[in-house]
Design a protein that fits this description.
The complex is a heterodimer of chains A (252) and B (214). Chain A is an alpha/beta fold. Helix content of chain A is 38%, strand content 24%. In chain A, strands 1-3-4-5-6-9-10-11 form an eight-stranded parallel β-barrel, surrounded by seven helices. The termini of chain A are close together. Chain B has an eight-stranded mixed beta sheet. Chain B has a four-stranded mixed beta sheet with strand order 6-5-7-11, covered by helices on one side. Chain B starts with a strand and ends with a helix. The chains are: A alpha/beta (252), B alpha/beta (214). Chains A and B meet through loops of A and α1, β8, β10 and α6 of B.
Chain lengths: 252, 214
């Protein structure tokens, strides 16, 4: 049977992992390659790298990072952050990324999703969706630019739009829950998961092992992404997996 | 020496890196004269069945691969490359494959036996059930999980070609083969120790084969 995936997310700036500095067993916890290998050994099912570099050099460094990660681990990984053209996608995929994640660029130019899925296949096009509840529309509104810029898109409309254009997966972040550590946004996740046929990765709000049980059992998420809970060693991926397996969630 | 068939589809980087980590000698080529020097071939592939077969024909590789199989030399198809080994696919209209193995690729129904909705593509880690645990590809490999990404599934009436299967509302042929023709629906290079173990075993099969010639 298909298992639920646990995905740690690593923010990379100018080739260095930001956060993730709590691993005393690592020689260099800022090294994305070493951290990737560490999570692989911990039975992470996939990894997501988010490039938050501001500079052009930082972005070029990211390609080197991707090459080294691909040469080191034997699990799939996604690269996102600042990917805004077919060339950007091609560079990352050629460097060995399995999937690329589009966010702001996809809202600005939805045709990028169509082009990416046509050239490279839907299986490697992830659309990252940042959503925040908006009472005025009685639903969740899509934001871009790291959650700073509201758009006119409602989350279900946008999710259907991106899948119709060939997105193979949706990485859904709840801006309401992100950083709160009080659990994933089950209502948002369920709403999107029921609206589309592609897998949905729930993101934002993981603060305890129980939250992973809830998001898988109650919201239909196919995968759950978390950052600080793993980076700051509040729990490990192995612990989360053992915990949710005991509660009836299938994991690898 | 393993030859990886380059026909312009599929990301070869991860397969190459996995072979390098395993110290298995390989080369990548689109040239059938070069590929003919290999002791075993890997047929990769990501994308649409028809596009892949058309490219293989345009590159003049189709007959070469047919002869290779007829000569009983080792061939490993990965993902779409595995599906191409079968008789055909109804992806974008019926397209014929190599027909080395009996069966057809068709789209997942998107429902399980109770009519519950299943997402397509079948994406993620699924558990394997070994049907031929003594098969050389499965040697010392744990009956664990493998990483799948596909929207089409092989349907075969011949259980003899099933080396391992998975379950996604229906039986998913995961490792298939007959004689020296083998394939994995999942990506072994992305399937951690389970998949890497199978690549290592394929390397051993090819090495034995080359030794037999010397």
């Amino acid at each position: 049977m298909l298992t639920k995936r646990i995905i740690p997310c690593l923010d990379v700036k100018e080739g260095r992992v930001v956060k993730g500095t709590q691993f005393v067993e690592l020689r260099d916890a800022g090294d994305p390659v070493e951290l990737a290998a560490f999570y692989d050994e911990q039975w992470a099912d996939e990894l997501v790298f988010l490039d938050i570099s501001a500079s052009h050099e930082g972005r070029k460094t990211m390609i080197d990072v991707v090459e080294q990660v691909a040469a080191t681990i034997a699990i799939p990984f996604t690269v996102g952050g600042g990917i805004s053209s077919v060339d950007d996608m091609r560079n990352m995929l050629r460097a060995g990324a399995d999937k690329v994640s589009l966010n702001t660029a996809a809202v600005k130019n939805p045709d990028l999703i169509t082009q990416g899925s046509t050239y490279f296949g839907s299986q490697c096009i992830v659309v990252a969706v940042d959503a925040k509840y908006d009472e005025s529309i009685g639903s969740w509104r899509i934001y871009t630019h790291g959650g700073r810029t509201p758009t006119d898109w409602e989350v279900v409309d946008w999710a259907r739009e991106v899948t119709a254009r060939g997105a193979g997966e949706i990485l859904l972040t709840s801006m309401d829950q992100d950083g709160a550590k009080t659990g994933f946004d089950e209502a948002l996740t369920r709403t999107v998961s029921e609206a589309v046929d592609v897998p949905v990765i729930a993101s934002g709000g993981a603060g305890a092992k129980e939250h992973f049980v809830d998001v898988f059992k109650k919201s239909g998420a196919d995968a759950a992404l978390a950052a600080s809970i793993f980076h700051y060693k509040e729990t490990s991926i192995e612990e989360v997996k053992a915990f949710i397996r005991e509660r009836g969630v299938l994991v690898r | 020496m393993i030859g990886i068939i380059d026909y312009g589809m599929g990301n070869l980087y991860s397969v190459k890196k996995a072979l390098e980590r395993l110290d298995i000698p390989y080369f990548v080529s689109e040239d059938t004269e070069e590929l003919a020097k290999a002791d075993g071939l890997i047929l990769p592939g990501v994308g649409a069945f028809r596009d892949a077969i058309n490219l293989i024909r345009e590159n003049g590789q189709f007959e070469f691969i047919e002869h290779w199989a007829a000569d009983g030399k080792p061939l490993l198809g990965i993902c779409l490359g595995m599906q191409l080994l079968f008789e055909g696919s109804d992806e974008h209209g019926e397209t014929a494959g190599f027909g080395f193995l009996p069966g057809h690729a068709r789209r997942f129904s998107g429902k399980d036996s109770q009519g519950r909705r299943l997402k397509v593509p079948h994406m993620g880690w699924n558990s394997l059930e070994f049907h031929q645990p003594d098969h050389p590809l499965l040697k010392n490999v744990e009956e664990g999980h493998a990483y799948f990404v596909h929207s089409y599934v092989i349907e075969t009436a011949d259980p003899d070609v099933l080396i391992a299967t998975s379950d996604y509302g229906e039986t998913v042929p995961a490792v298939v083969g007959r004689g020296e023709i083998m394939g994995t629906q999942f990506h072994p290079e992305k399937s951690s120790t389970v998949g890497i173990g199978m690549l290592e075993n394929f390397g051993a099969i090819v090495r034995e084969r080359s030794g037999a010639h010397e």
